[in-house]
Amino acid sequence: MEEIKVTIDAEGNVKVTVFGVKGGKCLELTKELEQLLGGTVEREFTSEYYTQAEAVGQKLNIKDRS
After folding, report:
1. Distance between CA atoms of 65 and 48, rounded to whole angstroms?
2. Would the pLDDT of 33 be above 60?
3. Residue 4 is inside which H or E element, if any?
4. Are 33 and 14 in contact (CB under 8 A)?
5. Is 12 left (phi over 0), alpha (psi -120 to 50) or beta?
6. pLDDT of residue 41
7. Percentage of the chain surpassing pLDDT 90?
8. I want to staple 53 with a disulfide (CB 3.0 to 4.6 A). Which of 23, 32, 47, 61 is the partner?
């Protein structure tokens, strides 16, 4: 399950943490939120970021019939 957690500390610093997402998809999920908050100042990537996202779909083998 994908989850985005937003934390705002007493000084007004905002931290956005993404759970359940592998690879760079987290950047897509938070892009609009970051823009609304005024842009990203600093990023820390979790180990999930460095894990390749699982492909969803089929692998097709197409043979040349000529």
Report:
1. 42
2. yes
3. strand 3-8
4. no
5. left
6. 66
7. 8
8. 23
